[in-house]
Design brief:
mainly alpha; 54% helix; globular
């Protein structure tokens, strides 16, 4: 998921939703982007 976000993905398909959600939130915080939808 992290690599997809860094590559510009806007939609991420995953099996472990909770873990992926955590990755997206951390990535958004590091990048200074709020409001994960």
């Amino acid at each position: 998921a992290f690599a997809a976000l860094e590559g510009g993905a806007r939609i991420i398909r995953c099996h472990d939703v909770a873990e992926t959600s955590d990755v997206v939130k951390v990535w958004a915080a590091v990048r200074g982007r709020g409001g994960v939808t």
